[in-house]
From TrEMBL, chains A, B:
Coiled coil feature spans: none
Pfam annotation, one family: cNMP_binding
InterPro entries given in the database record: cNMP-bd_dom, cNMP-bd_dom_sf, Env_Response_Regulators, HTH_CRP, RmlC-like_jellyroll, Tscrpt_reg_HTH_Crp-type_CS, WH-like_DNA-bd_sf, WH_DNA-bd_sf
Gene Ontology terms, MF aspect: DNA binding; DNA-binding transcription factor activity
Domain Cyclic nucleotide-binding residues, every copy: 21-141
Alphabetically ordered keywords of this record: DNA-binding, Transcription, Transcription regulation
Organism: Kineothrix alysoides
Alphabetized PROSITE patterns for the sequence: CNMP_BINDING_3, HTH_CRP_1, HTH_CRP_2
Entry keyword Transcription regulation: yes
Protein name (Swiss-Prot/TrEMBL): CRP/FNR family transcriptional regulator
Positions of the HTH crp-type domain: 155-229
Amino acid sequence: MKCNCYAGECPHNLCMHKVPIFSSLSQEEMSHISSIINHNNYQKGEILFSEEDSLRSLIIINEGSVKGFKITPEGREQILHVFSVGDFFGERNLFGGQKSAYTAEALEPTKTCSFTKDDFHKILFAYPGIAIKIIETLEERIARMESTMQSMGVRSLDGRIGGLLLDFADKYGEVVPEGILIRLPLSREGIANFLGVARETVSRKLGQLEIDGVIRPVGNKNILLLDGEALKTMTGKDT
Amino acid sequence: MKCNCYAGECPHNLCMHKVPIFSSLSQEEMSHISSIINHNNYQKGEILFSEEDSLRSLIIINEGSVKGFKITPEGREQILHVFSVGDFFGERNLFGGQKSAYTAEALEPTKTCSFTKDDFHKILFAYPGIAIKIIETLEERIARMESTMQSMGVRSLDGRIGGLLLDFADKYGEVVPEGILIRLPLSREGIANFLGVARETVSRKLGQLEIDGVIRPVGNKNILLLDGEALKTMTGKDT
DNA sequence: CGAATCCTTGAGAAGTTTCAACATCCGTGG
DNA sequence: CCACGGATGTTGAAACTTCTCAAGGATTCG
């Protein structure tokens, strides 16, 4: 049995099909679950929840992207996560954790689906296969964070920026004839806040990478990665 | 029904009681599972598995501690995780992931329990409650990594080192009259490799913190944290 | 098209790394 | 139990990188 729902036409089922954690369910099971989904829209810059909020729901991104960050004592944003379509978050509130560890802000117009804690627990017990999917997804997230930590730990800034570009290429890249086109989820300033360096420094390093023929910026929001191998060598991600 | 097994006397049940993920099981269920556990001992410096290994088991630390690291292109170790008693790892190999993302090396004499992939999947389906425990544990790990990333992202090196000390205090600290005694899992060099800075810089910063009366080194393997509040203010972890 | 935002570039100040020498710690074997 | 040797940690000074502040340029969105 095929589903006839497409984006925008059938909002209640939308996220179910985009999200790996429900992929093991039958259409019937999905229908059952979809009845208890809550939907929300956020504009760019809008806050989904703040640090310390006792949010009690799991949020799945249906469209758009969201950054999770904390404010450092220097008053700077430290970005911890960039979530995009299909990612979920807020789950810490459902499993033992009490308060949110970070603030979540929409990076662009974003649509979400969410479950309350109670509903979600019911789902989990009714469909144990979902738990395994969640574990797999969390594993992916951990792997991504490991990769980010590896990038952040590289001594040279060139290496750190290169590592982040590779991470982004992996997640947001699209293969084109000349290389990989990366739709940057973050501005230069965002990248700087992710890596914990000055915005100007990111500019300079990116400029140098362009001179070296490794990348070619396409506007401010895209980067064409011409020589991924150079980056991999530089960052140690070539194994 | 109480268990009569104590450390060293009943190796097959040992890890079961130390590991949160099995805490929901009855004694009987534990007995069943314990029959399929494999045991291993490692000396300090011994490798449990290497990057790229297609390891197929879940490893639980029963005694000792283990670091997970990669080698950077500069030839330096980038430490990604420090696992200690009760932590498990290698799970990436069980859920979709194929290869290990890092090398695991014992930091001290270490005893482990492990399951094969197949056995573990059987357990998971037989006792669904374990899946939820695993999710909770992974959440904790993610929270810890978020904290580490936050530490790494702080601009000032003082803040980065302070953040790491707080993380360690949280996990390895023991409250004593004068403050918190931290049993460092890593050497100065290890700390440097965790944060991606020079060993000498760690020495200098730690020296400065001592002069400021924030910490007092106790030998090379312990640090007495006298003024945790100072660190929290410095790192933004005071919320 | 224009305003607001975001990005780039320059030059001096500040911080970190490097290299080198010395001190300390720890385990080994006598 | 002590002495030795390798490993680990500390300190100093010069070189390098990054940061900060400031100004000008580019991009995006309404």
